[in-house]
Amino acid sequence: GWGYEPSDMIGYAIQDLNGDGVPELVIGPTREYGAYLITLFTLVDGKPQLIFGEVGDGSYAYLQDGRFFYSGYHSASEIGQGFYHLTDDGTALICDEFYFVQILDGDESDVTVYYNTTGSWDIEDSQEADMSLEGFWAWEPEYEYLSMIPFSATD
User: Fold this and answer.
1) For the purposes of burial, counting CB atoms within 10 Å of the CB of 154, is it exposed (0-12), middle (13-18) or buried (19 or more)?
2) Which of 11, 21, 60, 92 is 20 to 30 Å from 4 at the Cα level?
3) In the prediction, which pLDDT does 2 show?
């Protein structure tokens, strides 16, 4: 009764995203259904290694050249987004820029946007960003949609 077949909506891509010669396995929506990926794996010594995709990780959209845009929640009152890149060996993500807000009791009248380059959700590890809350909410980088093979196309 959803009006679509989930196996048409979700697919996979096998592609070397950071140019290290090792293709990553990406699972996520086909282009029509969004840009935020579900999970990403690489190979280490011939065995799959999870890069992201655990519950609570937030969501990542691929930008290009091994870069990703993160959007997620740390708690009901903490929302964050930022830019990450794959390590040279493709086994982890490193934070380049991370911005977050804490909205207490649903009151957005006095919210500060914080910034750091570690991916920390702690205000003590961050500084006030030169970004308005409106700019934070409007932030939408240009994604690169990976060519996903729908799971319905597999045997």
Assistant:
1) exposed
2) 60
3) 60
Task: Give the C-alpha separation, 95 to 83, whole Å.
Answer: 6
- Which pLDDT does position 106 carry in this prediction? 77
- Nearest C-alpha neighbor of 9 from the set 34, 26, 39: 34
Q: What are the tokens at 3?
A: 């009006």
pLDDT digits (tens, 9 = 90+) for 93-133: 999 999 999 987 778 888 999 999 999 999 999 999 999 99
- Nearest 10 degrees: Cα torsion 74, 78, 84, 89: -20
| Identity of residue 34 | G
From first CA to last CA, the distance across the chain in angstroms is: 24
C-alpha angle 148-95-47 in degrees, rounded to nearest 5: 50
C-alpha–C-alpha distance, residues 130 and 148, integer Å: 37
Q: Is 147 exposed, middle or buried (0-12, 13-18, 19+ CB in 10 A)?
A: exposed
User: Position of tokens 């929302």?
Assistant: 79
pTM of the model: 0.90
Strand 127-128 with 149-150, pairing: unpaired
